[in-house]
Amino acid sequence: MRQGDFVTRISYGGDVMFKIERIEHLKAILRGVDYRLLADAPLSDLKKINKEETLDHPRSSSPEFRESLRRLAVAQVHLQEKNQQTVQHKQKNHQHNSYFEVPGRVLHLDGDPSYLRKSMQLYGELRVPAEGFFFHESQMAEALQRLLPQIKPDIVVITGHDGILKNRQEGSPGSLTSYKNSQNFVNAVRVARQYERNRDTLIIVAGACQSHFEALLRAGANYASSPARILIHALDPLCIAAKLSYTSSRETISMLDIMDLTVTGLDGLGGIETRGSYRMGVPGIQHTEESV
User: Which fold does the domain 62-281 belong to in CATH?
Assistant: First the structure.
């Protein structure tokens, strides 16, 4: 076994695919490939997966996530077609028949630099204006106090690593002290909601694997993980943010409308009805040096 190898854990029945982050003595530090999960395991408990086998791994969600990206792209095309038809119908006797788009701007805070890099790449592919920052989960609340007034986003994504602690006090699954980072996420959500109380003006997507869903909603999140305390796909929060970025501010969407855009569905994420943050403008803008 070497750093960078793809592996599964024999004792867990090979349920999750990992990449070896590093090896310490006879123990490997593991990072989930598809799920926001950090773990460790003895080298004797690991089974190596060949690189060409990773996409065929039974628990690899790559095909499902590719389908989510395809649906997001198709929704953008349909929105553009609808806009073009509206403009042509309303301005059929005028010279200008074009429009410009103002999608919602995303501020993405991530407790994992690898997932952040992948998220920023995908935001670019989906044409979502986004700025991303890596902070340890314990630093996110303080970071938001500085970043929110500077960036003035429409959507904030607060994510990283979380989980129910193995050594928690018995009978206390509802306590924030039973979770690795849920309290840190709650603190960050509270800061964001204090900055902007209107849940349609500032949309908050928060949480990671097994996060305390109810506490995040009470703190002010629009969408959060994880209702069933399950592992969520590493990029599920991005899918929700991308959909909100390209949903008209005149339309309200619920988790029922967008659950098919996530890999883990309603077990992994939930939330409240929220207006989109996309706006259309006319006439079309040409040769601009600054974006709206």
Answer: Rossmann fold (3.40.50)
